[in-house]
Amino acid sequence: MPPSEQSLAVAETLGTEQSVNTVDRIQNLILDSADFEEFLNELARFSAHQVAGAGDDALCGITLLRDRKAATIGWSSDSAREVDEIQYRLSQGPCLTAAQEEREVYVPDLFEEDRWGPDYASAVASHGLRSVLSVPFHLQGEAQAALNLYSDMPRKFDGDVAARARGYTREISQALRLAVRFSLHTDSATNLRATLESRTVIDMAVGIVMAQNRCDQATAVRILTEASSNGNVKLRDIATSLVQSVGGSGTRTHFEEPARKKAV
Fold first, then answer.
1. What is the pLDDT of residues 91-137, one digit of tens each?
2. Gap between the Cα atoms of 61 and 12, Å rounded
3. Where are the beta strands (DSSP E) in 118-207?
4. 14/6 Cα distance (integer angstroms)
5. Is the pLDDT of residue 27 over 90?
6. Are strands 131-137 and 144-151 parallel, antiparallel or unpaired?
7. How does the average pLDDT of the chain come out, rounded?
8. Is CB count within 10 Å lower at the N or C end of the chain?
9. DSSP 152
10. What is the DSSP letter of 65?
11. Pair 85, 235: CB distance under 8 Å
12. How does DSSP classify residue 233?
């Protein structure tokens, strides 16, 4: 191709890319994804990039509330899903508040946060994170959902970043609403149900730890979270191992709170 034609082709390509807005890109994600789960994970990764900005990094999860159950249905990484799941175990946190009350919730610095008690802030901060921003989607009755953003920098989501997140969730709310509706009428809905059901194993593990240590739910969650963090093992794998060891023929595992072991 002659240089002049090559330059023209490049210019046309750039012009086309610039003309494709966020909604178009989300629709393309829907069309290009093999199933609902793949679409949501791609959406979470795309969202993290769009909101954090070029060259920056953030964890992103998408919380969905349906039938009184909460689950992260899309995540930019396993770490994003795991920090979302901390608040599901505690039944409180910024993402749940944002989805349930359909309002933006911002945590500038987890080291200075106490709205949901000390357990939530310390558990999330133990993953090396400092700030959280949760922005609700408006799904108009299909369900309740929120976009959850995490950063290892305090006050990462001040000013322009928060404004960008608000605008972005408004833009893609309709696409997410359609995707959720579509998923309920196709085989890919099993992916969503599987995600919700995966919480059952963790709930059972929390109950086991509560019984073993005679502690409350928040303490049991902290024990499992610390075991996951210290052993560099995913929380759901820790939970599965514990449930199997208690119910199966394997060696019984007992998770005990470190502070309790040292108490006199």
1. 999 999 999 999 999 999 999 999 998 899 999 999 999 999 999 98
2. 35
3. 131-137, 144-151
4. 12
5. no
6. antiparallel
7. 78
8. C
9. S
10. E
11. yes
12. -
